Amino acid sequence: MNFLKKLPLQLAPMALAESQICKSDLHTSAVCCRVQSGRYRITTKRNRPLTYEMANPPHFIAHRKSWNSWNTSTLLDSQRPAQTAVEDLFIRKFITGTWHALTCSEIIIKRQHNTIRIASIIRQAISPRKMYFLIGYTEELLSYWMQCPVTLELQTVADKKDVVFKYI
Amino acid sequence: MYLSRQLRLLPKASIGRSITTSSTHYTTTTGAAVAPAGEHIEIPNRIERSPTDILKALASTVGRDHTAPHYKYHDDPFLIPMSNMAKRTYAMSKEAGRKAAKWIKEEHRELFLHQEAQPAIEKFAPSMVYTEESEVDESSLGQLIELGELKDAVLVYNLLEQKGMAVSPELKQSLLELVCFHNNQDPLPEEYIEERWFLQNNQRRERHGKTWKDGDLAEKLYAEIEPKTPQTYAALIRGMAKYLQCERAYALLQEAGEKQIQLDTNTFNSIIQIISFLKDNAEQRWQLCTELLQQMSQQKLRPNLGTLNAILQCISTFGNFKLARSSALKVLPEFKQLGVSPSLGTYYYLLIIFCRERGPVSHVIVDILNEIAGREFTVEHPKDTYFFATAMDVCRNHLNDKALAKKVNELLHTGNNYDLVGDSFKESIYYRNYLALLCQTESIEDFMLTYDLLVPNIYIPEPGIMEEVLRTIEINAAVEHVPRIWSDMVVFDHTHRESLLLYVLRIMVDNRPNAETPSQSQLPEQCAKVALDMYNKIEESVRRIKKVSFTGQMLGDILTLLVRGDNYEKASEVFSHIDKNQHRIPGTPAESALQEYVEASIKEKSPSQALAALQYAVDNNMESSVIAKRIHDGFTLNEAHLAKLKSLVGESFLEK
C-alpha cells in the first residue's frame, strides 16, 4: 500500500475506499482451512489414537507424508478433475463400508494410465478366506463402476494398535 | 524409435552418407584401418508391431519368482496360502467375490448403465436380458450366436418361432453348431479361470458315459434344416461324438456316406476318436479305423493333426500291446510323409501306448525328448496339456531315470511351455512324480536344493511325498534336515498323520547327533524342540476331529529326545504322563528310552524320578535289572529309597 502515499491527497481516500470494498467482497470470513482441516484436537485424557498419517498436519505433505490421491487430473489441460475427486470419495466410502470396521489407515488411491490401484491397511479380524472374497468383490465391483481395471494392494496388521503412532 | 522414424523420412542417399561419414570419423580417431570405400549399411525394413508387443517383451524379462507365491495371491504374510487346501480356497474365494460383484451388477442393472470408458467396454455393462416379451429379430439371434450366449440364443430362437418369423437356414446352421458344441448346456464362463484350474479333474471323471441329450433341440434343428448340407451332418455328428452318443454318430456318418455327402476331416476325426466305444476288441477297432481312413482318402480329404491324434487315441485303447505298438509305428511315418507335424498331445499318446505298466520297458521318451528338446509349443490339441504329467510319470514309474526327468523339466520351463502344464491337478501330479524321483535318485544335498526351490510356493508335498522325503533323510542319516522338514510339516498340516510322526521320531532317535562336530552341536537341542512341539501338538489334537493318540513307542522317543536335548524338566513331565496313563496308552516305550531317562535322572540327582521309571519297568514286565543296577550304582540312596528299590527288584539283587 506504499504507493498510495505518493498519490495526490484527494485521490487517496477514494482509492482506499475502493480497496476496502474489494477486500470485503473477496473475503468475508476468517481463514479456517489453514487452522483446522487435517488436524486433530488434543483430548483432555490424551487418549485419541493417531496414525502416522493423521499425526502429521497437511503442511507436512511431501515432507513427512505423502498424498492420499495420486493422479494428474489437476495438471494443466488435463481432464476430469471434478469427476476424479468425486470418484475418489466414492472409492473411499465404498472401501470403508465394504471392509467394515477393518480399515485402519487412510485409503490411498493411485491412478496410472487406465488402472486404479487402491492401497490400505486392513485389520486381521476376519479369516483370509473371507478377505479374499472381499478382495475379489471390491476389485470387480469397482471396476464395473469406474470401467477400468482396479487393483487392491492391501497390507494386514494383527491389531489396530499396530498402526497407532501416538495418542493426543 | 524416434530416431529411426526421422531416418526413414530422409532421402536414402543422405542416410548412407551421414552414417558412413560418422563411421570413418570414428575409425580415424582410433587409428585403425579405414573402412573400405564401398561399404554400405543396410537399414532393415520397419517391423510392424502389434499394440501388445512391448508388453510381451517386458513380460519375457520376468519369470516365475520361486520365493514369492503365485501372483494371484495377495503379497502379505497373512494372506499367503500355506497348504494345498489354502491355495485352493483362497483362489476360489477371490473368484466367488468376483461372481458376487457380477451378480450385483446384473441385479441392480439400472445403476450400472453409465458409460465412463471411451470406447465403451461391453463387459463392464450389464448384459442384455431377453424375456418372453422382448422384441427380437433375426439379427439379434445372429449377434447372440456370435457371442456364444447359448441360453439367450435358444430363448430368442424359440421366441422367433412362436411369432412365426422365419429364420434363415444359415442362421439355423450356426445355431445348430453352437448347440451341438455345448450339448445345449451353458458352459462355464471363460472369465472364471480359477474354477477351471481347480475343477477339471472332477469333470474328467464324469465324462465317461453318454451325456448327449437325445431328442433335444439339436436334433430338432437338424430335422428342420432342409436340404441337409454337409455342414449340417458334420455339426450333429461332431456333437454326438463329443458327448459320446457313439452309435448314432456312427450311423449318421454311414448315412451321409450312402447319400454321397462330402464330409470334412474333423468330422471323421471325431468318429475315429470314439472307435473304442463302437468296437470291442483291438482287431475290430483297427479294422474300423483303417476303413474310415480309406473313406477319407476316397473323398480326397487331407488328414490333419486331429486325425493323427485321434488314430493314436484309438490305438492307445488296444489291449494287445504288440498290435498297438506296430500300428503306431505304421501310422507315424505316414503322417510324417503327409507333412503333419506332431503336437505334445501326439507324444502323450505315444507315451501311453509304449510305456505300459505291464508291458516291456520302452525308451521311447528318450527319442521324443531328443526330438523336441528346446522347442516352444503352443496349444494345438486338447490333449496337449496331458504330456508333461505323463512324461514325468513315465520318468519315475517306468524308467526311474533322473536325467530324463531333468530334461522334461527343462522342456517345461522353455519359453511359454509352462502354459501347457494343464490344471492344478496335473501340475501337482507332475511335481509329485518329479520330487519323488529326485529324492530316490539324488544325493540329499542336491535334492534339498530342488526341494527349497519348489516348496512351498510352487508345490506343496502331499503326505505320501513327505514320507518319501523322510525315507531319503533316514537312508542318508541326514538328521540335520529334520527340524526344517518338521516345520514344513507343521505348516502344511501333516501333523495328524501318525505314520509321519513316528517316522520323524525314528529318524531323530536312531541318528544320535555327534555333539563334537560343530555343525551338529545345535542338533540335540533342536531335536528336543521338535519332540516337544510334537508332544504339544498331539495333546492339542485331542480336541480336534482328526485325533492322533499317543503310543508308548512315540512317547518313549519323545522322552529320549528331550533327555538328549538336556530338557530334563519336560522329560520328567512326559514320563509322568506315560506313568499316569499307562492303561490308556497302547504299547510301552523302548527300554533304551527308560535307560537314558534314568541316566539323566542320575545326572540331575533326582532318585525318586529314577525309581518311578524302575517301578514302571517292573509293572510292565520290562527288563528291569539293568535299570536297578544303574540306580544302585549311580545314587547314594537313603533308607526310604533303598527300601523301595528292594521291594521292586527283591533283596537278592542287591547282594550280588
UniProtKB/TrEMBL annotation, chain A:
Record carries keyword Cell membrane: no
Keywords: Mitochondrion, Ribonucleoprotein, Ribosomal protein, Transit peptide
InterPro entries listed in its UniProt record: Ribosomal_uS3m
Gene Ontology cellular-component terms listed: mitochondrion; ribonucleoprotein complex; ribosome
Chief subcellular location: mitochondrion
Pfam families reported in the protein's UniProt record: MRP-S24
Source taxon at top rank: Eukaryota
Subcellular location: Mitochondrion
Keyword Ribosomal protein: yes
Biological processes per GO annotation: translation
Stated family: Belongs to the universal ribosomal protein uS3 family.
Name of the featured protein: 28S ribosomal protein S24 mitochondrial
Lineage start: Eukaryota, Metazoa, Ecdysozoa, Arthropoda, Hexapoda
Automatic annotation (TrEMBL), chain B:
Keywords for this protein: Mitochondrion, Repeat, Ribonucleoprotein, Ribosomal protein, RNA-binding, rRNA-binding, Transit peptide, Translation regulation
Signal peptide: none
Family from the record: Belongs to the mitochondrion-specific ribosomal protein mS39 family.
Species classification: Eukaryota, Metazoa, Ecdysozoa, Arthropoda, Hexapoda
GO CC terms: mitochondrion; ribonucleoprotein complex; ribosome
Species of origin: Drosophila madeirensis (Fruit fly)
Location in or out of the cell: Mitochondrion
One Gene Ontology molecular-function label: rRNA binding
UniProt keyword Ribosomal protein present: yes
GO BP of this protein: mitochondrial translation; regulation of translation
Record-given protein name: Small ribosomal subunit protein mS39
Major subcellular location class: mitochondrion
Recorded superkingdom: Eukaryota
InterPro entries: PPR_rpt, PTCD3, Rib_mS39_PPR, TPR-like_helical_dom_sf
Entries under Pfam families matching the protein: PPR_3, Rib_mS39_PPR
